[in-house]
């Protein structure tokens, strides 16, 4: 009798469990969605295929630690002020006073490195691109990124501040500094020109162009240096703020405006005779058949043939740098983070004010 009772009790338990399962299934069906208040986990905000979201329930002291939310205002934390940008095939690095931002090219994934082993990320001022190596310059030394929040100082003859660095191959490169221009080879650094405060470098079909702060515009034709002037204003290039070359034109930025040189004559762009308003030029780049010109007072402008046009999305921003990767144009600003021009439109690479309070995403290292 007791055996039969146990069988009946067991059958009742199974029937109750099946009924509960069927009931839950009906509640979770599309027809019953109105009956539930369902909030997806925060990890669902990011696709798991390309990133690992760090959301530990308990803290393991042996692993790197990440804060669970971004500042309410990136502007007040220093994240909106862009010092430099470096783009690779799978990520974008942004140096800011608030930390080193690591994101993908679409701004879908991001994290802010505020503290790290071996380097204070908030002190990074430049990101130097060498073949196969990305160096982060700060505190009069360069560092490599080894992994999550770990940097290592590298023993290379590159001493910040570095104005410009151009690599010829995996072993040789030219860099500009506040005390001159150096060429680095496997044998020994070669001083190409000293006693000038270098602000910009550009390579053209006829040599190396060097802009300075107060020492004019120079060109090295491979054998000798020659200081370049524009008549009748021989002081126009005393202070050069940006240089860029795209055959057949050399573009020269100054505190007053921009100049274009075609190898035979100079054109001046600013003032009453130009649609370009002038002011201090901070960055120059060429992409998508046009020039991009960054300024302090008047935002970003484009120059197509001889026609200037303002970029309305950046009309009120002071431009700090312009970088081109493939057909995309990345523009750093002093107070609005990074904008990218892609597929014919401008958009912020990452949100500045009111960033969502979501766990930061650690990009998979390639």
Any overview of this molecule?
With 366 residues, the chain is mainly beta. The chain folds into two domains: 2-38; 47-363, YVTN repeat-like/Quinoprotein amine dehydrogenase (Methylamine Dehydrogenase, Chain H), CATH 2.130.10. 8% of the residues lie in helices and 40% in strands. It has two helices and 30 strands. The protein has helices at 2-28, 74-77; strands at 51-53, 84-87, 92-96, 99-103, 110-113, 126-130, 133-138, 141-147, 150-153, 164-167, 173-177, 180-184, 190-194, 198-204, 207-212, 217-220, 225-228, 242-246, 249-253, 258-261, 266-269, 281-287, 290-295, 300-304, 307-310, 319-325, 328-333, 338-342, 345-348, 361-363. Strands 2-3-4-5 form a four-stranded antiparallel beta sheet, with no helix packed on it. A hairpin with a 4-residue loop joins strand 15 and strand 16 (217-220). It is globular. It starts with a helix and ends with a strand. Mean pLDDT is 78; it is low at 1-72 and 354-366.
């Amino acid at each position: 009798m007791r055996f039969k009772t146990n069988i009946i009790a067991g059958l009742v338990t199974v029937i109750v469990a099946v009924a509960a399962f069927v009931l839950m299934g009906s509640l979770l069906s599309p027809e019953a969605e109105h009956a539930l208040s369902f909030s997806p986990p925060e990890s669902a905000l990011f696709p798991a295929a390309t990133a690992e979201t760090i959301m530990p329930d308990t803290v393991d002291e042996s692993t790197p630690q990440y804060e669970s939310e971004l500042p309410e205002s990136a502007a007040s934390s220093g994240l909106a002020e862009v010092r430099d940008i470096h783009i690779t095939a799978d990520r974008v690095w942004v140096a800011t006073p608030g930390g080193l931002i690591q994101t993908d090219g679409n701004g879908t994934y991001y994290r802010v490195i505020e503290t790290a082993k071996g380097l204070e990320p908030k002190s990074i001022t430049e990101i130097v691109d060498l073949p196969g190596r990305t160096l982060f310059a700060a505190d009069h030394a360069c560092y490599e990124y080894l992994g999550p929040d770990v940097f290592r100082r590298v023993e290379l003859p590159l001493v910040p501040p570095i104005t410009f660095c151009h690599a010829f191959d995996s072993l040789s490169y030219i860099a500009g500094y506040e005390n001159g221009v150096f060429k680095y080879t496997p044998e020994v650094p070669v001083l190409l020109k000293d006693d000038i405060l270098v602000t910009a470098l550009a390579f053209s079909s006829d040599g190396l162009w060097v802009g300075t702060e107060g020492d004019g515009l120079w060109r090295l034709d491979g054998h000798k240096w020659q200081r370049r002037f524009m008549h009748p204003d021989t002081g126009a290039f005393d202070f050069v703020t940006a240089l860029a070359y795209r055959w057949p034109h050399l573009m020269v930025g100054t505190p007053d405006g921009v100049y274009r040189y075609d190898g035979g004559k100079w054109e001046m762009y600013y003032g009453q005779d130009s649609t370009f308003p002038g002011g201090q030029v901070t960055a120059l780049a060429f992409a998508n058949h046009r020039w991009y010109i960054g300024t302090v007072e008047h935002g970003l402008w484009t120059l197509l043939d001889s026609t200037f046009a303002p970029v309305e999305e950046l009309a009120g921003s002071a431009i700090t740098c312009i970088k081109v990767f493939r057909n995309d144009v990345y523009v750093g600003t002093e107070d609005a983070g990074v904008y990218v021009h892609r597929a014919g439109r401008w958009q912020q690479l990452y949100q500045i004010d009111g960033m969502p309070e979501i766990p930061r995403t650690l990009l998979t290292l390639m």
